[in-house]
Amino acid sequence: MSAAPTSRDRLFAASGLTALAVIAVAAGATALAAAQDLGRGLLVPAAAEPGTELPVPAPQEAGKRLPAPARIVHEGIAIDFSMHPAEGESWSRPPRPGDDVVFRFVIADTVSGTPLPGANPAAWLGLRAAGEPVGADHCTAKISTFLGGSILSAAELDLNVYYVLALNDDASITVVDPLFGFGDTKLLAMVELPGPGEDWVLTGDEDTLFVSIPAAGKVAVVDTSTWKVVDEIDVDGAPHRLGIQPDGAYLWVAHTASQEGGIDGVSVIDVDTLAVETTIGTGAGPHDIAFSDDSRFAFVTSAGGGSDGLPSAGGAVSIIGVRELRKLADVAAGGRPVSVDFASISQMAYVADEATGMIAVIDPERLAVVARIRSEPGIGEIKFAPGRRIGLVVNPVAGTVDVIDAVSSRVVQTGYLLSVPDQIVFSDELAYIRHRGDETVLMIPLGEIGTPGEPVGTVDFPGGQSPFGAGAGPGLAATIVQAPGANAVLIANPADRAIYFYMEGMAAPMGSFSNYSRQPRAVLVVDRSLRERRPGVYETVATLREPGTYDVAFFLDAPRVLHCFEIEVEADPAAPPPAPAVRVVPMIADPAVRVGEETTLRFRLLDGGSGEPLAGLADVRVLAVLAPGTWQERLWAREVEPAVYAVELTPPRPGVYYVYLQVASLGLELNNPQYSIIRAFENNAGAAAAREAAAGPRRGREEAMNR
Predict the structure, then answer these.
(1) Which residues have a Cβ under 8 Å from the Cβ of 348 and sit 6 or more positions away?
(2) Cα 111 to the chain's mean position, in Å?
(3) pLDDT tens digits for 445-481?
């Protein structure tokens, strides 16, 4: 499985206070600006232009309507749409709720047939209501609404989203759709593993996830389209650290000897065939792995001791030739080398030795240490910022971070941190540093470090309620990960049993969602936006939810194309009849409120099918929850006008509150995804700032649409 292009501009339609509910919304970065002229370029089904062929529809079974390919043509550009089961290319029955489906758009020149790469399309599935109009104007309005990103008019399926994965303490992985699941509601899947996972890594195309299972001596292989374990690879020891080399060809599994046997070393696995190509012995673990950026060399540290005649009391780095799949040398790297990273700018590997506090600089061409950088004993993880000359190394013992210049091979700055800093994660502009002994996450602006002698500027925010080392504690994998297409990160806090969403520039996380009573030891994202699998071929996988007729709303900015394809999802004949649908329409005038002041929350309830008002309901109940679940209040709502229900809420503390509605008589439960969000502030200034932040993006969208 080869890596596919994944870089694309994205528009986060989240705005202001509703950002919590739509952190997963992503579309082409040009899409919002393009919304100013949505009427132009709208297409309707058309015959193929000369030199093109229309796809032949699939044979229809008697009494069944199977999905058939469809084509539109505009200004010499053809767009072919098709959908097929994730496990197969053809349908034996109509699609049903729960089916995993591949949505495919092929964009090409109609005359030459040349694919159109780098197009960055966006698409959504909108369920048609009874009596809803169809046609070009309505399709334009629907796409405009989806581009706006309102949670109140969100698509039933957004094909431009990402999913959040948590590696748990109990031999499982939770998979959450954050658009629908924010506030403890939408669990997409629960992956059961053969034992607790320690580390994980995704292939470049994000189709396959590998998870090390030390207790089982296996690496689990997870298919991210079906969220199932499809294979288990045995290795000769207890697997811990995993790594995929930059060209995506091999998975490297570092393992240690255990009571059940095995050796200290690294197993090399072909990513396509899942065959173990070789196993190479190293010194005693624990181990870390890094690669040269051209995938010619792998570096494996052995913190417990050397091999091939090196003193067992000292540590070593094994340099492995990837072409030969053999060990080229063991290089002495101090008493306990615990971390290694490769700097592209110097083409050197840098190894942090916890025992001596020295950083060994290794030239893979010479198979030797060419320099040593002095730090302090106790140093831990070392990481270089992608594409930069600057690296960071944390010292959990001293509570410091050193800034390393890869060109001069020296420490140019030292910063003082909090309790037990132990992990470094980079976003595009910031370095995030986690602390085992504290819940605080420190941020270092990458553009402001590297000047010798200058202080290291830091800002911080709370990454939850509990220290990161509490509870099950983190594993080897990162507990902080950048959200795709945004200046934001997700943070897993094991003891809080929650994942937090932090937008850069804020003083605190904008919110959180629970991890279903499990302790998340690591967090990862799988980008499910439409991606270019081959030149001009854009695909993603999604799970169908509700039966009915859908518009597959397609948007392309250049050339400008908007179109709604039609698909049918039939009800599962074995499924129980659905409960009566209720649509909740919030009527919250001001979502920014003051702590201790009573505020009235109003909601209009409509029939989800007909849109008729639902008046006279006596069992409308409201649940307000302060994130991440530290306070809640249940209130009975009263009908203040036909089909409009209200409660009075007094927020006791600052923070983000999720508001859920329940109407048991109509089957609307509290875990439905139609929730609202308010934010409470200590003073008027905070509330005013929040209103202004929310108003800015809305004004921008309105101005764009009116131009």
Answers:
(1) 342, 361, 362, 363, 364, 370, 406, 409
(2) 39
(3) 999 999 998 999 889 999 999 999 998 877 899 999 9
Answer yes or no: do 620 and 678 share one domain. Answer: yes
Residue that is written with structure tokens 């950083």 in the block:
359
Q: Is residue 390 domain-resident?
A: no
Q: Which residues contact 63 (CB under 8 A, 6 or more apart)?
A: none
Q: pLDDT: is 134 or 336 the higher one?
A: 336
Token code pair at residue 504: 């850069």
Q: In the block, which residue shows the tokens 């595009």?
A: 428
Total domain count, the chain? 2
How high is the pLDDT of residue 676?
A: 86
Angle at 257 between CA 255 and CA 259, to 5 degrees: 135
Domain assignment present for residue 323? The answer is no
Residues 587 and 560 in one domain: no
Residue 351's closest CA among 362, 335, 365, 366? 362
Per-residue model confidence (pLDDT) at position 47? 34
Comparing 83-92, 265-274, 632-641, the range with the smallest average pLDDT is 83-92
Q: Which of 511, 539, 569 is the last residue of a domain?
A: 569
Handedness of CA 123, 143, 121, 33 (dihedral sign): negative
- Could you identify the residue written with the tokens 């809803």? 132
Helix residue ranges, H only, 439-498: none
Establish if 47 belongs to a structural domain: yes
The pTM score is: 0.68
How far apart are the C-alpha atoms of 277 and 285, rounded to whole Å?
A: 21
On whether residue 544 sits in a domain, the answer given is yes
Please, what is the average pLDDT of the chain? 83
Element (H, E) at 318: strand 316-321
> What mean pLDDT comes out for the span 185-194?
83
Nearest 5 degrees, angle CA 500-CA 503-CA 509?
40
Which residues contact residue 72 at a Cβ distance below 8 angstroms, ignoring those fewer than 6 apart? 43, 44, 45, 46, 78, 79, 561, 563
Torsion of CA 638, 640, 642, 644, to 10 degrees: -70
| Sheet of strand 70-74: strand arrangement | 70-74, 77-85, 100-109, 537-543, 531-534
For residue 324 the two structure tokens come to: 């030969």
Under 8 Å between Cβ of 209 and 184: no
Sheet with 368-374, strands from edge to edge, namely: 337-343, 348-353, 358-363, 368-374
- The pair phi, psi for residue 658, each rounded to 5°, is -100, 135
Q: Tell which wins on pLDDT, 612 or 699.
A: 612
Could you tell me the residue range of the domain that residue 671 belongs to?
Answer: 582-700
CB 291 within 8 A of CB 344: no
- CB neighbour burial string for 156-176, b if at least 16 within 10 angstroms, e if fewer: bbbbbbbbbbbbbbebbbbbb
pLDDT in the model for residue 15:
27
Phi/psi at 139 (nearest 5 deg)? -65, -40
Residues 38 and 109 in one domain: yes
